[in-house]
Specification:
InterPro entries: LeuE-type. It comes from Roseivivax marinus. GO terms for molecular function: amino acid transmembrane transporter activity. It is a multi-pass membrane protein. The chain is mainly α. The chain has one domain. Helices cover 83% and strands 0% of the residues. It starts with a helix and ends with a helix.
């Protein structure tokens, strides 16, 4: 494994992170609603689980899913239900004023973990990206370096997002449009949950 492999992996990872999925939506909303500490904690949870999926792909969990299809189905259904629950909660509370206390960082971290855990397709995505980018026969140290690199990229990007959006103007702009923005986010999360539930 050489540095061009890591560069290609990081560019692919950045492109994936920029797509409007549940992880990005959660990171954006938490930073705007609850401030930088909760936003960063959410990003730490999201990044930790994403790197864990990469680690499981490197260890062959994608092969286990191929051998035991029902395990993947169970994880997919559980993940879809969780995303649909998040969407329902966000839609229902769209018009509710924000609580002054905001979100506790520990809870934000846990939510970040669960959102990325809710999508077992992440391990299949990671496995395909790893297969295309990296050479065969990676050593244990090289696999550890890939996971650590993934973790560092995710944490850095989500922390930057949280700090950038946790400003007064950004928060005021969000509050002015909160009902509409929350319902758009809820609709996207719900669509992603339904897609995860019915997609084969």
């Amino acid at each position: 494994m050489d540095w061009p492999h890591l560069l290609a992996f990081n560019l692919t990872l950045l492109a994936a992170m920029a797509s409007p999925g549940p992880a990005l939506l959660l990171a954006l909303r938490t930073a705007l609603v609850s401030g930088p500490r909760a936003g960063i904690a959410t990003g730490l949870g999201l990044g930790t689980m994403a790197a864990a999926w990469t680690a499981t792909a490197l260890l062959g969990l994608d092969a286990l899913f191929a051998l035991v299809p029902w395990a993947y189905v169970v994880m997919r259904v559980a993940g879809a239900i969780y995303l649909l629950w998040l969407a329902r909660t966000m839609w229902r509370e769209a018009r509710r004023p924000l609580e002054a206390s905001g979100t506790v960082p520990a809870r934000a971290f846990r939510t970040g973990l669960l959102v990325n855990l809710a999508n077992p397709k992440s391990v299949l995505f990671a496995a395909s990206v790893l297969l295309v980018i990296f050479p065969q026969g990676l050593t244990g140290w090289e696999k550890a370096a890939i996971v650590a690199n993934h973790l560092a990229v995710e944490w850095t990007i989500y922390a930057a997002v949280a700090l950038g959006l946790a400003t007064g103007p950004a928060r005021d702009g969000y509050l002015a449009l909160k009902p509409a923005l929350d319902r758009v986010a809820a609709a996207i999360l719900g669509a992603l949950g339904l897609r995860l539930l019915i997609d084969r």
